[in-house]
Amino acid sequence: METKYLKINPDDNVIVAITDLKAGEIITVDNITIHLNEDVPAGHKVALKDFTEGENIIKYGYPIGHTLTALKQGDWINEKNIKTNLAGLLEYTYNPIPVSLDIPKKDLTFKGYRRRNGDVGVRNEIWIIPTVGCVNGIVNQLAEALRKETDSKDVDAIVAFTHNYGCSQLGDDHENTKKILRDMVLHPNAGAVLVVGLGCENNQPDVFKEFLGDYDKDRVSFMVTQKVGDEFEEGMKLLRELYTKASKDTRVDVPLSELRVGLKCGGSDGFSGITANPLLGMFSDFLIAQGGTSVLTEVPEMFGAETILMNRCRNKELFNETVKLINDFKEYFLSHGEPVGENPSPGNKAGGISTLEDKALGCTQKCGKSYVEGVLAYGERLKVKGLNLLSAPGNDLVAATALASCGCHMVLFTTGRGTPFGTFVPTMKISTNSNLAKNKPGWIDFNAGVIVENEPMEKTCERFIDYIIKVASGEPVNNEKKGYREIAIFKTGVTL
Fold it and tell me: Strands 62-67 and 82-83: what pairing?
């Protein structure tokens, strides 16, 4: 029998339409007969009761906003008749919740690349990284020439990661650029890196080299274009040397405990918090039970669900760091005269997400129910295993770049509307609904929509674990197949 609606939590006073519902249709929820007063699109909410003006709408067991007018049982609830409860900064109290997850440990492995410093990569690629946007054209030419010369047959990819920064920046912007580029140079998915500078930029190559700290000088080379004769010939000489070394690397068995994944969503819809995001949460808990690591970011999309994360912090110190993570981002919004609760995009609203709380309560399900073990500043690299929270905005490419930069081997990206992009690590797209997977097979790597088509979540997760291991062992995802590889760096200040 086709499932037409879902009540997510027993305390909810709305249901979510799984299929398009028609005005006049009669449904039964908790032995109560409800007449639909209007058409309700799939992914959207239906009132289970009469509401007075200003009354809270409950979904996922939590308020997602309040009604703007009185509503009748059977009405369609959407962004036009509900408003966020969010406003400014809040005072938070640590009310720790004990976490006990009974997940067996399995001796699972993937085929990865063991680096000289003991770290592990899931790809063996040649990266060309500019210190400044002035040399973007040069690095693109070098990458294209090396691909043609070698056919990339002995490495997984040869990629130039262009950006527009590295000069005319001050303060945090300059530091953010340095940190992200440093994190890329040190990332284990790169078998070798050529760093290309101009010579007169703010991000001085010699200073940047010192900023890297300890790095494998056998696998990371530098070229300052103002200091060489023919930058193309010199660059190709260095790249050929790096390629020769990286091409000899081979995959070895690596315990799943070494895998690090980033958790991200974009183009979310009303199914995100029902299918794909809970699937990632189940996988995240499983990976952490194996000794692995997952990272949740998109801080503005935690607003409205942040106390759930705060109360799962392992200790008071992590709670305080999470409070700072949230309030710093709220202050960033408020300092620019922007409200903290106007996040859902037009696509989100069309898909059934009405408020930021609605979005956040679905978004945070990606990190499951494990303890929070670490909190990271933007551009900071992972220090502890387990679930980490990372400071970054919700913007898809900025957040995905930040997840990769902190050390994640891949980004798991749930979407209900679809997107083709990828950052500098494999960016796996997980659809929230089967229609998207069917219509965009060149974008979507895994379909979680089957969860509302009566496939048990546990079975879907078993298939997902198998697929993750295949990708970690070298199977390319769609963004890699199509060559969609980009970076974006968080910018907050002035440009000189």
Answer: antiparallel
SS3 186: coil
CA torsion angle 266 272 278 283 (round to 10): -40
Query: Which H or E run includes 289?
Result: helix 276-289
If pLDDT is split at 50, 70 and 90, which confidence band does 2 have?
A: low
Token pair belonging to 31: 């032995």
The candidate with the shortest Cα–Cα distance to 116, out of 207, 220, 209, 259, is 220
284: left (phi over 0), alpha (psi -120 to 50) or beta: alpha
What does the block give as tokens for 170? 């001050």
The helix/strand count (H/E) of the chain reads as 13, 23
**Which ranges constitute the DSSP H helices of 127-273?**
136-150, 171-185, 205-212, 231-246
Smallest CA-to-CA distance from 281 within 384, 430, 108 is with 430
The amino acid at residue 16 is: V
Residues 6+ away with beta carbon under 8 Å from 172? 492, 493
**Alpha-carbon 314 to chain mean position:** 22
Q: Provide the CA 76 distance to its chain's centre, in angstroms.
A: 31
SS (H, E, C) 467-478: HHHHHHCCCCCH
Closest CA to 278 of 438, 410, 461, 44: 461
Distance CA 225, CA 208 (A): 15
How many C-beta neighbours within 10 Å does residue 470 have? Answer: 13
Contacts of 106 (CB under 8 A, 6+ apart): 256, 290
Give residue 104's pLDDT: 94
Average pLDDT over residues 173-178: 96
DSSP letter at 450 equals G
H or E element at residue 479? helix 478-482
Listing DSSP states for 366-390 in one string gives GGTTPPEEEEE-TTPPP-SSEEEEE
pLDDT tens for 368-410 read 999 999 999 999 999 999 999 999 999 999 999 999 999 999 9
Q: Which two tokens stand for residue 58?
A: 């409950």
Residue among 423, 490, 489, 430 at smallest CA distance from 189: 423
